[in-house]
Design brief:
The chain is an alpha/beta fold. It contains 10 helices and 11 strands. It has a domain of about 220 residues: Rossmann fold (3-Layer(aba) Sandwich), CATH 3.40.50.720. Helix 6 packs parallel to helix 8 and helix 8 crosses helix 10. It binds nicotinamide-adenine-dinucleotide.
């Protein structure tokens, strides 16, 4: 493939998964991140046919972005750098969250425009829908009124809307993908994500041979990261885009308990249970309310997207990934 994709946040969870999928089909990835490419990723990627060009920099720095775009003839951008802030960070560092998640997104788009790229894709989040009334139908891009709760979701919605508007006035082909709650290979603590998935903690427990003790496992659209990568690449590749905003999920509402059940089926001896009242849990679902699934029909119609990993397939694939790689980091 002759695509050259600049991915910001390439050394994070979603960024590494998309990088791996693009390298697997022979693409070139400029991996732009403030962090270095993790050693286990470098080792895995070396076996793939594509080429990775790592560039360490900050999206808030114009000169760093210039270096990123100069590293290879970039044709499209996936902007995935972000701070996924929990309440403690919201209290102490709101300005940095806004500077990275909103102003940083606009800076990356400006740099992309200066380089005449063909497509700009932005991973947004189910967090833009926020808390909806109990029993709400599946979230749809135009039918569900966004009601983000936390600063993360607020900045994701603001960035999504600002990027779409500025793409329109600048004639840039743009798509935002509202991702469900992602889990699977490459998830790790980047120091900038305060809410790791309960599935990650369950995998840590399974790999370590520990019992998984869950807090209240609320339901929502949990999507395996390899399906996220396929969906985002579908948006990068699509010859034309029908809309600016697409849901990208599994299309079903599941819980961490459902995942543990699937994990137990493929990992003999794995034990899990929901914590008794007052007992400390080691598998934390951060969203305190249940959400319906994402309606993924728009993306399916536009790109042919269909999730490949149900919970059973995801559990088996994730275990295989961690069984063969460096120990899973908590
Ligand atoms: N993980 C999920 O469940 C989830 C759900 C919905 C949407 N998303 C979206 O997916 C995208 C990627 O999220 P993730 O889960 O991979 O997060 P992550 O924390 O794993 O990765 C983010 C990466 O961005 C980098 N980064 C942060 N600030 C930077 C800066 N100023 N300059 C350069 N690099 C910077 C970090 O070093 C990190 O490698 C984001 O847009 C996020 O909102 C993720």
């Amino acid at each position: 493939m002759s695509d050259v994709t600049l991915i910001t946040g390439a050394c994070g969870f979603v960024g590494l998964a998309v990088t791996e999928a693009l390298l697997a089909r022979g693409g070139t990835v400029v991996a732009f991140d403030r962090a270095a490419v993790p050693a286990d990723a470098t080792a895995r990627f070396a076996a793939l046919p594509g080429r990775i060009v790592p560039v360490q920099g900050d999206i808030r720095s114009e000169s760093d972005l210039i270096s990123g775009f100069a590293a290879a003839p970039v044709t499209r951008v996936l902007h995935a750098a972000v701070i996924t802030a929990g309440p403690a960070r919201e209290k102490t560092d709101a300005e940095t969250i806004v500077a990275v998640n909103l102003q940083g997104a606009l800076a990356v788009q400006r740099a992309a425009l200066a380089h005449g790229i063909a497509r700009f894709v932005y991973p947004s989040s189910v967090a833009v829908y926020g808390q909806q009334p109990e029993g709400a139908p599946p979230f749809t891009e135009d039918g569900t009124w966004p009601r983000p709760v936390m600063l993360y979701g607020i900045t994701k919605l603001a960035a999504e809307q600002a990027l779409a508007r500025l793409a329109l006035v600048n004639g840039l082909s743009f798509a935002a993908a509202r991702l469900g709650s992602v889990f699977g290979p490459w998830e790790r603590d980047t120091g900038l994500r305060d809410t790791l998935s309960p599935h990650h903690a369950a995998l840590v427990a399974a790999v370590a041979g520990r019992e998984a003790v869950l807090n209240t496992p609320t339901r929502g659209d949990h999507i395996y990261v390899r399906d996220v990568a396929a969906g985002l690449i579908g948006l990068l590749d699509a010859p034309a885009l029908s809309h600016a905003v697409f849901n990208l999920g599994s299309g079903v509402a599941t819980s961490a308990a459902d995942f543990c059940e699937a994990l137990a089926a493929v990992k003999p001896g794995f034990r899990w249970r929901v914590a008794a009242q007052g007992e400390a849990a080691n598998v934390i679902t951060h969203v305190p309310f249940s959400r319906p699934a994402l309606d993924i029909s728009r993306l399916a119609g536009a790109t042919g997207y269909a999730p490949r990993f149900d919970l059973a397939a995801a559990a088996a694939d994730a275990l295989a990934f961690y069984g063969l790689s460096a120990p899973l980091r908590a």
